[in-house]
Amino acid sequence: MQPLNKNYVAEDATAQYLIAKAGTTNEKTLKSDAAAVNQLGVICQPGTVAIGDRTDITILGEAEVLCAGNIDAGKSFTSDGAGKAVAANAGERATGIVLEAGAATRIVRCLVIPHTA
């Protein structure tokens, strides 16, 4: 199954493998800065993205995400203050589930499936 990707306009500088959230208007996006309810998915646009650039975001399906710390395989993840994946606490908005164990600065496969942890 192919992931579902959607194209947005970046409202801030960001990069591949980080978590994105809804921007200030429709069709715009920002790098996520917390376990927010408006997380969209994971940036799959290669390289870095400047303000005003178009960027692709995986909003459903398999992707790769950059971890900020340890996350056990099969656990829900959300965003830290820099858009990196961290383990989601019960009741938090989760972007998805990691498919392999994560550690700080490690890029891991994940399933983007927004839910409440």
Tell me what portion of residues adopts beta-strand conformation. over 45%
Number of discrete helical segments: 0
Q: Give helix and strand order, one letter per element, not per position.
A: EEEEEEEEEEE
Adjacency order of strands in the biggest sheet: 1-4-3-5-7
Mean pLDDT: 95
Largest beta-sheet details: 5 strands, mixed, barrel
**Strand segment count:** 11
Q: Unreliable runs, pLDDT <50, ≥5 residues?
A: none
Please give the alpha-carbon distance between the first and last residues: 24 Å
Radius of gyration: 12 Å
Put the structure in a nutshell.
This protein is mostly beta strands. It is 0% helix and 51% strand.
Description:
The protein is mainly β and 117 residues long. The protein has two domains: 4-59, no CATH class; 63-116, no CATH class. The chain contains no helices and eleven strands. The protein has strands at residues 4-10, 14-15, 19-22, 28-31, 39-43, 48-49, 54-66, 76-79, 85-87, 93-98, 107-116. The strands form two sheets. The chain has a five-stranded mixed beta barrel. The protein is globular, with a radius of gyration of 12 Å. The mean pLDDT is 95.
Helix-strand blueprint:
Layout: E1 4-10, E2 14-15, E3 19-22, E4 28-31, E5 39-43, E6 48-49, E7 54-66, E8 76-79, E9 85-87, E10 93-98, E11 107-116
Parallel strand pairs: 1-4
Antiparallel strand pairs: 1-7, 2-6, 3-4, 3-5, 5-7, 7-11, 8-9, 8-10, 10-11
Give me some keywords for this one.
117 residues; mainly beta; 2 domains; five-stranded mixed barrel; two-stranded antiparallel ribbon
